[in-house]
Amino acid sequence: MAESTVHQSRSRDLDKLLLRPGNLVAPTFEPGAQLRDDLQEYARILVVGAGGLGCELLKDLALSGFKNLEVIDMDRIEVTNLNRQFLFRLEDVGKPKAEVAAKRVMERVSGVNIVPHFCRIEDKDIDFYKDFIIIVLGLDSVEARSYINAVACGFLEYDSDDKPIEETVKPMVDGGTEGFKGHARVIIPGSTPCFECIIWLFPPQVKFPLCTLAETPRTAAHCIEYAHLIKWDEVHSGKTFDPDDPEHMKWVYTEAVKRAELFGIQGVTYSLTQGVVKNIIPAIASTNAIVSAVCTLETLKLVSGCSKTLSNYLTCVEFFLILLYFGISSCPSGCGNHNCLLQYTIHVTESDGIMLTIEMYNGMEGLHIKVTEFVKDKDCLACGPGVLLELDTSVTLQKFIDMLEEHPKLLLSKASVRYRAMNLYMQAPQVLEEMTRSNLNLPLFELMGKVPKDIVHVTGTTSRDDKKTSCLRKLRLVFKGADAVTDQDMAVGA
Amino acid sequence: MIGLQRAPYVVILVKMAEEWAKAHGGALPSTRDEKEEFKELLKAGMVTMDEDNYEEAITYSSKVFASQGISSDLLQLIHDSCSEVDSNSSDFWVMVAALKSVEMMLLGLHHDWIDKLLVDFRETEIGQICFSVQLESVRHVLLYEFIVNEGGGEAPLEGSIPDMASSTELYVNLQKIYLEKAEADFLVLQQRVKSILKRIGRDPDSISKAMIKSFCKNARKLKVCRYRLVEDEFSNPAASYLQKYLSDEEYSVAMGFYILLRAVDRFAANYNSFPGQFEGELDEDISRLKTVVVGLLNDLGCNGSTVTEDLINEMCRFGASELHAVAAFIGGIASQEVIKLITKQFVPMVGTFIFNGIDHKSQLLTL
C-alpha cells in the first residue's frame, strides 16, 4: 500500500526565494535549483569570531542554506560567556570557542560542515582568506576589524580604467553590538567604503591621559587605572598583572580606594574596579540575535541575489549622502556614551560613487532602525589602489623594510613582505625567517622578477591610539628607470 | 582670563558667557558669526597651546548656544490632561503635577532679571491683568505664564557631571555645587509633592523619598507611553495614519507590508491556503491577493491608497515561507522588549514594528 505523504523538503521555505523569480531582486539573480545547490556545495563562508555574534551567525548561516562554514576565534570559553553564547555549556569552560561552536552546530544541523580554527586572525596566511566567497565578522574590536578589512581589501585590484576587477572583490558583512545597540553593514571593496574609509566614525577609545592618572585624578575610574597601570608596576615590577587573578584584582581595588580617599573622590567599588580594568561592556543576548540575523540575511542576499541588499538598494540617480542624526536626541544618557556611532552628522550632498549603507539598531529608546549612507575614500589605505612607492632598482629588501618604518602613511615596523604567492621575507616563525633571511641583501627589483611595477603586501605592527596593532597594507611599487632597463634588455636580446 | 588655568571647562564657559552677555545687552551668541567669535575669544584665553580645559571649552561651546528651558517632550508632559491630579492619580502623575507647579521656582532668576521682565510685560496683556495684584503673586503668575508659554524654566538638576580636564580640587568643588543644587531642587519638589498629596486626600508620605529622587534624576528623560489594545488597532487602525504612511516614501514599503500581512490572513481565511504557497497557482494568487488588498483598504477607510504591484508580487513569491534569519530577528526584537519591560529599564517600543528585510526601511507605525 503506497503512502501518499508529501515529502517536505528541508529547504521548502528557502526554495521560495531561491527558485522563484521576482521583481525586487538583484540584477544578477538567476533563480533555480542550481542556485540552491551551488549555495550548498560551493559557497564557503568564513565567520570571524565565535562569541556572542559568532554563535548566532553560525546557527543562522547553517539554517539559511549554507553548508560550508569555517570559524576562527583565538579565545577559550569563560563562565561569563554563557548568558548569550548559547552553544556553550558549563562543562565547556576552558575549551576553545571555535571548536565547541562548530561541533554544536554540526550536531544540530545535519549536512553542514564547519571547520574551526583556534588561533589569531593574524596567524593565518593571507591566502587562507582568499577562498571564501564572503567573510562575516562578529568581532569586538576596532583593531581586529581593521586587520581583516585590510586583508580582504588587499585582494582588490583595479584595471586600467580604475575600475575594481570583479574577481578580486571580497565582500565582508560586519556586525557589532554593545548593550542594546548594534550595527550591521555590507562592505564591497572597491565600491562601497571599506572599514578604513570610515574609521573616523569611531570616536577615540576612552584613554585617560597619564598626567590625569598621576597627578589630577577626578573620578573613581582614574583612581582605579592609577592603581592598575602605574602603582602595580612600581610595587610588582616584572610581574604581569592578571585581570583574572582575584588576588591581583583585590590588590588594585585596595590601592584605588587609598588613592580615592587621598583625593576625596567617591565611588570606588570592587565591581567598578573589575569593570574598568577588564573594560567590561555589558552584552545582551537579544541584541546579538538581532544583528546576526541582519548579517545573515545580507549574506544570503549577496551570495544568491535573491533580494536587494543594503549596499545597492538605491539606484545611481537617487544618490544622496544621508546621515541623519540618528537618535542622538533620544540617547538616554545625553550621549555621554562614547561608544555609539550616533554622534556624527554629515551634510547632504550628491555623489557619484556607490555608497555604504549601514543598518543601525538602537533598542534603548523605543526602537530605532536607520539606514545611513556613506562614501568610499578613494585614497583609502586599505581599499584604494594602495600607497604608491617609487624605488630605485638598487634598493635592497632590507632597505625597503626600513623605509616602511619611516613612511608617514605607513609607520610599519617589523614588516614581512609578500609578493604574489611568494614570501620575500617573513619576520616569523623562526623557520621561515631563516629561510628568507638571505633575500634581505638582494635588490627588491630582482626579487620581484624585474617587473617595472606591481603590487606587494606588507604586514607588520603599527601604532593606533597609542596601542600596537597588527597591520596589513597593499603597496604599489614603481621602479624608477625600470622601463629603460627592460628596453635595453630587449634590444640586446634582439 | 587669570585664575581659570586649571578650571573645568564649564566654569570657563559660564564666565565667558557672562562677559559676552554684559557686552551684548544680556543676549548670548546666536548667529553663526557670533558663535565663531565666541569660540575665538575662548581660544584667545588660552595661555599655552595645550590646555585641555580650554580645548574642552571650545569643543563644548555649543552648550552655551543651546536653547534653554525644558524640552518640548517635558512641556507636553506637564500639559497632559493627567497632570490635573485627583485622589485616583498615580504616583507618577502626582510628581508631574508637582514639577509643573514648581517650574517657576526652579528658574533661579536673579531679581533684577525679574524686574526687567516686569517692565517688559507691563505693556502686554498679561502685564495689564496682573499689575494690580500683589508683587509676589505677580512674579508667580508672570513666571508661570512665561515658562508655560515661552518654554523657559529648567527641569530639576540631575546632579552628576561628566569628567572634565581640571585640577582635582576644582573639579570636586564643582561636583559638590552640582550635587547641592540637585539636592535643593529635589527638596523643593518633595515639598510640592507632599502638599499636592495632602490636597488630593492622600498621605503626604506615601511617595517615597527614593522615588522622588529618581524622578528628579530622570526629569529630562521622562516619557509617557500610551498603548492601544491590539484588538482596537486591528479593528480600527487610524485611517489618516494609514493613508499618510502609504503615500510617504520612507514609510510606504513598511506600510505596504502591514496591509499585505493582514491581506494574507484574509486570503487564508477565504481560500484555505496562503498566497503563493503552491507552485502552480502563483499567477492566480497574485490577482486574488490584489483583490483582497483592495477590499481591505476599502474596509480600513483608505479607498484612494494603493499598495504597489511589486510588493503584492513579492508577497506571493514569499508563499508563506519562514526564513530562520527573519524569525531570529523578530524574536530578538520581541525579547528585547520583554527584557526592558521586566527590568523596567529604558523605553519600551510604542507602536507596530514592521520589519522590512529587503531594503531595511523597517518602521515603527502608530496605528
From TrEMBL, chain A:
The keyword Nucleotide-binding applies. Keywords: ATP-binding, Ligase, Nucleotide-binding, Ubl conjugation pathway. Its EC number is 6.2.1.64. One of its GO terms (cellular component) is nucleus. Pathway: Protein modification; protein neddylation. Belongs to the ubiquitin-activating E1 family. UBA3 subfamily. PANTHER family: NEDD8-ACTIVATING ENZYME E1 CATALYTIC SUBUNIT (PTHR10953:SF6), UBIQUITIN-ACTIVATING ENZYME E1 (PTHR10953). This is NEDD8-activating enzyme E1 catalytic subunit.
Automatic annotation (TrEMBL), chain B:
Signal peptide: none annotated. Pathway: Protein modification; protein neddylation. Keywords: Ubl conjugation pathway. GO terms for molecular function: ubiquitin-like modifier activating enzyme activity. This is NEDD8-activating enzyme E1 regulatory subunit. Belongs to the ubiquitin-activating E1 family. ULA1 subfamily. It comes from Salix dunnii. The keyword Repressor does not apply.
